[in-house]
């Protein structure tokens, strides 16, 4: 097994994976689908892979759910969703792509498939395509794909992402039966400089909604309401994760049996660069499942699902440490760790630094930095790897309000994956590829004024397989 293959993040046994698709809770089990090329560890001939779990943590690989129907002019089964229809039948709605006029830019179609045997096998409907490309009439729509479906009192609603009249946005469709759809118009059209929206996802929180989307960069969200004209009315905007193409994209989610809104994102591995010297038989990782919550101020909060605590092993525990410019080696090492640190900066002239995947001499390390001077939280990859060509860019976001008094950071390290949660608001995810075998240490330090660490917890993490 490669030293870069995660042990507690989901990924396929081999070959390519990108977007998570259609997560759903059904008959006591969680099902997760994903964009998959079963033939090689690179994009192409997209199928729907499938896995299931009883606890959101440990997964069993299942047979491929959807294959391209080559005989029907289909080359790829692009992203979509899974719901239970009004007859209790699991139903997948997805984007069907083919050659020529069926291309992704102008010829995408919406197809549907059903399962009558507990999601083991799927049959595509003879009614396909249930939504053809010409449904938009005179509206100039391109790159439309990635259906997300939910149920309201007056029927089924669906949004798809794409480009409309040159602007990214989400398009709205309605149906009584999941098979006959009517185009309603724009659900929301971007007010930012975004030419394309992918993977739109809607969560409902009572009378309020969150609209999550991937605009060819960091995954973003709006929260707001839906007006009488069925258009989304935004009240607040934010960022789901600052990783973007360097670590977190194409987020999608579902509502579980406990009413929790849970998200996954795809962790693309472009950070390896073009000449990565280690042969890898798989590409693509999924983030840890995160619970999304609507806060009173209109922002979304994010935290890892509590079930992940099952993976905690031996714990290292320290309290009341005063950090200065001197590097403090914790004595803890590992490639699969969860770290939790409670920080009290004292003033706004300091920054806290935690180095993970650190070599003994510090030549290689990935640095998580909470900078109270600039009010930012970042993952610094400048020294993450000695391999030439690996990406070095810094992933950065804003510290939550009030962080100048105290803040809790939760950091998940899993071989090549680093996920950071600052408070329950700011998330950063990225990929790193240390070259040295001894790049497994953890160290703390501060710059500027001294920083008080009231508590530090580090757990070894067990495998999910």
Could you characterize what this model shows?
This protein is an all-beta fold. The protein has two domains: 15-304, Glycosyl hydrolase domain, family 43 (Tachylectin-2, Chain A), CATH 2.115.10.20; 312-461, Sandwich (Jelly Rolls). The chain has strands at residues 15-26, 29-37, 47-53, 59-66, 76-84, 90-97, 109-114, 123-124, 141-152, 155-164, 167-175, 181-189, 198-205, 208-214, 219-226, 232-241, 249-255, 261-267, 282-283, 285-286, 290-294, 300-304, 312-323, 328-333, 336-344, 350-358, 366-371, 376-380, 395-398, 407-414, 417-422, 426-431, 441-448, 451-461. The two termini are 13 Å apart. Keywords: Glycosidase, Hydrolase. It comes from Cohnella endophytica.
Short note summarizing the structure:
The protein has 465 residues and is mainly β. It has strands at residues 15-26, 29-37, 47-53, 59-66, 76-84, 90-97, 109-114, 123-124, 141-152, 155-164, 167-175, 181-189, 198-205, 208-214, 219-226, 232-241, 249-255, 261-267, 282-283, 285-286, 290-294, 300-304, 312-323, 328-333, 336-344, 350-358, 366-371, 376-380, 395-398, 407-414, 417-422, 426-431, 441-448, 451-461.
């Amino acid at each position: 097994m490669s030293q870069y293959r995660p042990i507690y993040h989901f990924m396929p046994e081999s070959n390519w994976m990108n977007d998570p698709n259609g997560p759903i809770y059904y008959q006591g089990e969680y099902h997760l689908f994903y964009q998959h090329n079963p033939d090689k560890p690179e994009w192409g001939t997209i199928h729907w892979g499938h896995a299931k779990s009883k606890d959101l943590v440990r997964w069993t690989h299942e047979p491929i759910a959807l294959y391209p129907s080559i005989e029907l002019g289909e080359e790829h089964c692009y992203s979509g969703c899974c719901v239970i229809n009004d007859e209790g039948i699991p139903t997948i709605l997805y984007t069907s792509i083919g050659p020529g006029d069926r291309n992704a830019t102008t010829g995408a179609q919406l197809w549907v498939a059903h399962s009558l045997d507990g999601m083991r096998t799927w049959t595509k409907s003879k009614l396909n395509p249930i939504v053809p490309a010409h449904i938009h009439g005179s509206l100039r729509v391109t790159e439309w794909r990635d259906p997300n479906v939910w149920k309201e009192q007056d029927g089924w609603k669906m949004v798809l992402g794409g480009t409309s009249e040159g602007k990214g946005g989400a398009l709205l469709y309605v149906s009584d039966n999941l098979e006959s759809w009517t185009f309603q118009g724009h659900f929301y059209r971007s007010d930012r400089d975004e030419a394309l929206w992918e993977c739109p996802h809607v969560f409902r929180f009572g009378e309020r909604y969150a609209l999550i989307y991937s605009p060819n960069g960091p995954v973003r969200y709006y929260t707001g309401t839906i007006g009488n004209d069925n258009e989304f009315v935004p009240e607040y905007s934010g960022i789901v994760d600052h990783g973007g193409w360097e670590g977190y994209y194409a987020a999608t989610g579902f509502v579980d049996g406990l009413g929790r809104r849970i998200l996954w994102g795809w962790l693309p591995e472009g950070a390896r660069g073009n000449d990565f010297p280690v042969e890898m038989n798989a590409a693509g990782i999924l983030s840890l499942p995160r619970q999304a919550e609507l806060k009173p101020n209109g922002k979304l909060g994010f935290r890892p699902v509590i079930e992940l605590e099952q993976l905690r092993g031996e714990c290292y525990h320290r309290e009341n440490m005063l950090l200065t410019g001197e590097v403090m080696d914790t004595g803890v090492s590992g490639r699969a760790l969860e770290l939790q640190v409670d920080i009290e900066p004292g003033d706004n002239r300091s920054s806290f630094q935690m180095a993970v995947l650190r070599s003994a001499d510090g030549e290689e390390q990935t640095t998580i930095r909470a900078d109270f001077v600039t009010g930012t939280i970042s993952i610094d990859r400048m020294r993450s790897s000695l391999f030439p060509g690996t990406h070095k860019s810094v992933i950065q976001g804003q510290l939550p309000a009030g962080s100048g008094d105290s803040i809790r950071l939760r950091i998940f390290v899993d071989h090549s994956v680093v996920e950071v949660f600052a408070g329950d608001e700011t998330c950063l995810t990225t990929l790193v590829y240390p070259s040295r075998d001894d790049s497994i240490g953890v160290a703390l330090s501060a710059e500027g004024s001294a920083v008080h660490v009231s508590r530090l917890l580090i757990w070894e993490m067990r495998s999910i397989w």
